[in-house]
Amino acid sequence: MYYYVNGTVAEIGPNLAVIDCGGVGYACATTNYTLAQLKRGEQAKLYTYLHVREEIFDLYGFSTQAELSSFKMLLGVSGVGPKAALAILSSGTPDQLALSIVTGDEKSLTGVPGIGKKIAQRIILELKDKLAKEQTGFDARMGPLSPIPAGGKTQEAASALAVLGYSSQEISAALKGVDAALPVEEMIRIALKKMAR
Q: How far is CA 190 from CA 113, 160, 184, 194, in A?
């Protein structure tokens, strides 16, 4: 319903930012990462997700589309609601979440309050599959000249970057020349550094 809210940061609280848009204050539940980007009295743009259930309308806001995309992806996992998804994203960045999923790192997820081993395993299992499906679409968009070989660590790294919202061209350029013998986590870190320049 709402794509984003753009206005002045009126209030900041625990996991909450109120954005004043033309005299209307939108209370957005959010992550520690997004809160760290905001300052009271300054302009801010938050990409939003409206969660509706029964008579409750909760608005969630994120400073980046990658964080919003990760939030929606987590909501797609059975047993993960908005509060759990917010807690997971508050414990790290979307990049770290993608690394945890790609590498099957349960410990980073079970370290989040309220996330047990079963939920962590389900998140990894279901989202790894989703990453694989997105990778298939990614490969199709890359076309026959794709420098990313099918299968292997490079493809896993490309999947993680795709879920973070990077385009096929950005991913291809970032992974070009990266040693395919490196661990997936290191390949992703190198690619992210290249794209941050």
A: 30, 13, 10, 6
Segment-wise mean pLDDT, segments of 10 residues, the chain, 197 residues = 91 95 95 94 96 89 92 92 93 83 86 91 86 53 47 77 77 87 85 78
Which structural domain, as residue segments, surrounds residue 164?
A: 66-196
Same domain, yes or no, for 151 and 172? yes
The model carries a pTM of 0.71
Tokens of 122: 């389900």
The label of the residue with tokens 């005299």 reads 23
